[in-house]
Design brief:
alpha/beta, Rossmann fold, 2 domains, six-stranded parallel beta sheet, binds NADP nicotinamide-adenine-dinucleotide phosphate
């Protein structure tokens, strides 16, 4: 049996970082060997530095592991859960030192030579790493809403083409990291607008659904109008959308396309790939964050309420677990893809 690959986490003390710590426990290919965070945490045992929010207790051997400063060394693969400003400074240092950096941060997502990947949708974009200036590489996963959105759009793009999307989100508080939105602002309330979010929802889908053309991705010509809200939900972003398709199709055809979606076999076999990346729910009051965000261990995006739209062609509701499919699980799946493609 091949020895497990040593893996480090950048930003191991944050909301996404600790989710990565949990998902790496018992992983068949990866062994967690380094926990890295800011100077505020470095030098302390992980159990003291982290405000552990995961449902299972922190295993004692991890609680005792020292948090290290974010300096390269000791592993060829790092999963990054840094905030964007820290990522912009730190990730290139790791890539220059020969590491493959798989990043949740937005810092490099839209750079021409950086793949923005959801393995079930655009695994071929990984080839862009050959165009990067570093000895190692940086590969990114999208914004947490976009991670779910493109899984719904991909089968529609393949079957009918895509023209325009009107999207309203209802986003969970865990999407804001820890401590996130103050309780007095969010309890019993809805906050319209999330700083910087709408731009990402309007830019990132085109790149992911775009066509690899030599040294860059030719974006899919999809117009997106996005409005975001923060709601008092713990985990799970709800996406309410209307889509204008490239050619007209009714709800029955759209449902058939969503149900028939199958990612490439080499992606379906990755350890973190769910049996079903997309679950079509028939209940007219589904999906709901509390009931469905955990499907497929948080890696399955659920979709329902597929109806004709009197303004565009079709409307539907989707749900994505923002810290799993939208962040930690997405990065882990990308890391597995890099191994499968021989990049790591
Ligand atoms: N939460 C989500 O649902 C979600 C979804 C998709 C993508 N993302 C992205 O994932 C990243 C992490 O999000 P989060 O919610 O986990 O944030 P978070 O809870 O604020 O955690 C940030 C992490 O970065 C570390 N850090 C900050 N500055 C640093 C520095 N200069 N050097 C080294 N480490 C530093 C922090 O360490 P200390 O504890 O030592 O300060 C902490 O471990 C962000 O880029 C975010 O946009 C989040």
């Amino acid at each position: 049996m091949r020895p497990r690959i040593p893996v480090g986490i950048l930003g191991a003390t944050g909301t996404v970082g600790q989710k990565l710590v949990r998902l790496l426990q018992g992983h068949p290919w990866f062994e967690l060997t380094r926990l890295m965070a800011s100077e505020r945490s470095a030098g302390r045992p992980y159990g003291q530095a982290v405000h552990w929010l995961e449902p299972e207790p922190l295993p004692p051997h991890l609680a005792a592991m020292p948090v290290e400063p974010a300096e390269p060394g000791g592993c060829e693969l790092v999963l990054s859960a840094l905030d964007a400003a820290a990522a912009r400074a730190i990730e290139p240092r790791f890539a220059s030192a020969g590491c493959a950096v798989v990043s949740n941060a937005s810092a490099f997502r839209m750079d021409a030579d950086v793949p923005l990947v959801v393995p079930e949708v655009n695994p071929d974009h990984v080839e862009l790493v050959g165009r990067q200036p570093w000895r190692g590489c940086v590969v990114t996963n999208p914004n947490c809403v976009v991670a779910g959105l493109v899984l719904v759009l991909k089968p529609l793009q393949d079957a009918f083409g895509l023209d325009a999307l009107q999207l309203t989100t209802l986003q969970a508080v865990s999407g804001a990291g820890y401590p996130g939105v103050p309780a007095l602002d969010i309890l019993g309330n809805v906050i319209p607008g999330i700083a910087g979010e709408e731009e990402k929802l309007q830019q990132e889908p085109g790149k992911i659904l775009g066509r690899l053309d030599g040294d860059h991705v030719e974006p899919a010509p999809l117009a997106v109008s996005a409005q975001t809200t923060r709601v008092p939900v713990l985990d799970g972003h709800l996406l309410s959308m209307s889509v204008r398709l490239g050619r007209r199709a009714g709800p029955a055809e759209v449902l058939d396309a969503l149900r028939a979606f199958r990612p490439p076999e080499r992606v379906r076999e990755l350890p973190s790939a769910p049996a079903r990346p997309l679950a079509v729910l028939d209940d007219p009051f589904a999906p709901q964050p509390r009931l469905h965000a955990g499907l497929g261990n948080g890696m399955t995006v659920s979709v329902g309420r597929v109806r004709a739209c009197p303004v565009l062609d079709i409307r539907l509701v989707a749900l994505v677990h923002n810290t799993v499919r939208g962040a930690a699980g997405a990065a882990l799946l990308n890391a597995e893809l890099l191994v499968r493609e021989g990049v790591v």
